Each structure stands twice: as C-alpha cells, then as structure tokens.
Amino acid sequence: GASDGEWQSVLSHRSEGDGSRDAAAARFRAAGVGAAQVREALSDGGDALYQAARRRSADWAEPFGGTRAVALLAAEVSVFAAHVNSRASGVRSEAVAELLEAYSAVTVAGELGVSRQKVYVIARSGVRPPYIDTVPWRSP
After folding, report:
1. What three-state secondary structure class fits 57?
2. I need a labelling partner for 61 at 20 to 30 A (CA). Which of 19, 52, 118, 126 fits?
3. How much is the pLDDT for 139?
4. Residue 67, SS3?
5. CB pairs under 8 A, 24+ apart, for 64-71?
6. How many Cα atoms are found within 13 Å in the side-chain-facing hemisphere of 103?
7. What is the pLDDT of residues 3-39, one digit of tens each?
8. CB of 11 closer than 8 Å to CB of 24
9. How far apart are CA 38 and CA 16, in angstroms?
C-alpha cells in the first residue's frame, strides 16, 4: 500500500491541519483505492472517469475498483478543482488590487468586463495560502 508520505503528497490540495487529508486517505484505503490511482485521476482531471461513465456499459466502474471507488475519485477531482479555482481567484485578486493602485475602478472594471463594485470585491480577498505549488500534470 501507499505510505503516509505518498498520501500526503497526492492529497496536498487538502488542508493539512484539519484532518481532511488523513480522513480522505482512510476512505480511499477502505475502498481499495491507492494513492497512485488517485494521482492518476487528478492528473487527467477526471477524463478517464468521465469517458467510462459516458459509455454507460454495465461494468463501466469496474476498471476503477467499482462504483464506490469511482464516487470517491470523482469527489476528489472536484475537491482538487475547487482548490485550483480558489488559487486562481486569489491570484486574480492580487492583480486587481495592484491595478487599482494605478488606475481608477471604472477603468479596471472596463478592462476586466466586471462592474465597478465587483472590482472592489475581487481586490479584497487576496491570496490566502496554503495552495499547492504545481498541479499534478506538471513537474515541480
């Protein structure tokens, strides 16, 4: 089986201090899903899961370890996507905050295609790590 270090690595998009990494790893282990299989699902963004589900054959989930494994893997792809989305929003926030130092809110809003009020909302949130440094489909 996978070591704790492998699970920590593959689930690095989950918060370290709240126990969610360990809980997710335990759910995967209980379903017979290894860290390498989770990494594979994250690395292809859930493409293989989606293609299999679209085929709708009677045994479509079997290559992944059954429907329980598929449900867990698909949920993890979703958790990962939310993490990457949050990271991108934080980066956008930092950029908008800097733009507001040099340009009016009306100008920034026009350039970004959002309302003037939305510019202030975007700029307020900022980057709030921890975030993963690299996505699994790129090397660090």
Report:
1. coil
2. 19
3. 62
4. helix
5. 64/33, 64/37, 65/31, 65/32, 65/33, 65/37, 66/31, 68/31, 69/31, 69/32, 69/33, 69/37
6. 17
7. 889 999 999 999 888 999 999 999 999 999 999 999 9
8. yes
9. 17
